[in-house]
Queue: 2 jobs
Job 1
Amino acid sequence: SGPVLALVGATGAVGTVMIDIMDGRASVPWSEIRLIASARSAGKKLTVRGEELTVVALSPEAFDGVDIAMFDVPDEVSAEWAPIAASRGAVAVDNSGAFRMDPEVPLVVPEVNADQISNRPKGIIANPNCTTLSMMAALGALHREFELKELVVSSYQAASGGGQAAIDRLYAELEALAGKEVGVRVGDVREVLDAAGLPVSDSPFPAPLVQNVIPWAGSLKDDGWTSEELKVRNESRKILGIPDLKVSATCVRVPVVTTHSLAVHAVFAREVTVEAAHKILAAQPTIVLVDDPAELKFPTPVDTVGEDPTFVGRVRQALDFPNTLDFFVCGDNLRKGAALNTYEIAEGLAERL
Ligand code: 2RA
């Protein structure tokens, strides 16, 4: 008797994590879970909560009877198909970039703006970009207390933000470099990759990712900014409801498979202390505070991957900037950064349908 849930993009990197999240739930409100993917994956069998389900091909009819359709597909697929799902009566919860900045589509992080779930004139709710999302639980909680004014962010983004092909590429590069001595002279990493049949021209990344950090994520926008950096700015403003929030972001790709990290410099209207920030962060159920500098305890991707909460640490009061906190955040970009937040929105919807 519960709502019917569809997962569009069931066989992709985020879709796979979504199934893992549904498997891990003690109970689910759904009367049916339907798996939808491209025609190429149709017919594939996947087990969800102990039940073998057959993936059906994306078509308008696939949405018949569906109440909530979660989309984990590329922007152009969502742009075409989320409105079709909505026109067939489903609420589309979309994890692509296609609708995030549409004023008629709420951009939801349940800890920050769950009230927006009910405000969906197009029948579409957007899930934020994983980079923005990774810091939202922390910033939302701190903003409620201290009123956020300015944000300077550097990201350390994992390969899996680029999907399965990007994960495969990082593993292939790691394998090609195994046992090789590199990092000695310019060009040595590229030579090893070329010799292994892995020229950078074939990579989803614009440079080798192993033995490297790449100050580039997304596509080129005006004045040298990347799409990813503009998403951090625009989406943070929309989610936090601060249209004039000053934001400057530099997005960087690092050779980590999964978990985005961010170094955050947040300026507030009111006086802040590390002690008060610790209290607020520790009280937020979806945050784990790992901040004991004397014991060298801080968040890292290695200790975050596969976990639902956001891990926050290195909280410091900036020495030369009043009312300002610097801190470090790690969030599994495929879980809270993508699948988990989408699923939490769907759960919120199920309560309100
Ligand atoms: C990335 N945030 O990490 C983007 C995609 N979701 O590439």
Job 2
Amino acid sequence: RDDKQNKNINKPSIRFNDVAGLDEVKEELFEIIDFIKHPTKYHKMGAKIPKGILFYGPPGTGKTLLAQALAGETDSSFFPASGSEFVEKYVGVGAKRVRSLFEKAKKTSPSIIFIDEIDAIGAKRTSESNNEKDQTLNQLLIEMDGFHSEQTIIVIGATNRLDLLDEALLRPGRFDRHIFIGNPDLRAREEILMVHTKNKPIDPSVNIKELAQRTHGLSGAHLSNIANEAAILAVRNNKSAIGIDEFNEAIEKVIAGLQRKNAVIL
Ligand code: ATP
């Protein structure tokens, strides 16, 4: 029965190698890996292991991927959730979901709980009260204050808007480590394109470095999208490998999509 239960636990196979660029961020996370792998070393020294880490920055830059890689590197159980899924119409439902999430994570520790869009529950409280959201946030704070140091649980929250978050969430002992994850620079874009073309047949005339130069301002998610679009186009064009024509068209398509989206926002 235990075996069967274990099969249901999500243990990602993603490793830091699958995350391109972000060298400084990875460096910072090596410390967290050591905490998770050797907690007693820190307990003996009277050191507290961080409970909460915030990843903040623009969308599609690898926040989810990094959280999965952190679980993969430490053989931790991974519990993904999204802030928006906690906030329901009925008061108390979100709080109950938070409680049950932590219960499961405690049973399978070491665990990593990943809460995407944490601003959906963690935004600053306003005078206009929202009982459901406030109760959900309170429950999250209670859970984070409550787990013992022998239980290795790290909560990673992700947001595009650090400035929106309630101070209570950022206090020591809660989400007190903030890590910025930004859009990739030239070298990182090249590395991301390499990761996403690794298992695809690429025509030798395609110069990945040149593609990286032409994709300034795009995120890792956009670059992964370009590699995939190019592969689909190559199939459509009956090619045996992805050529520069397919990459050109894929880049145009992704950039055009972005411009349309910006036009709507403006
Ligand atoms: P959001 O803020 O929208 O939730 P995110 O920062 O969590 O986005 P991810 O979901 O991690 O972004 O990234 C989306 C996809 O983009 C990944 O599954 C991966 O394919 C690709 N990607 C993004 N960043 C990287 C990276 N640094 N290395 C490799 N692939 C990346």
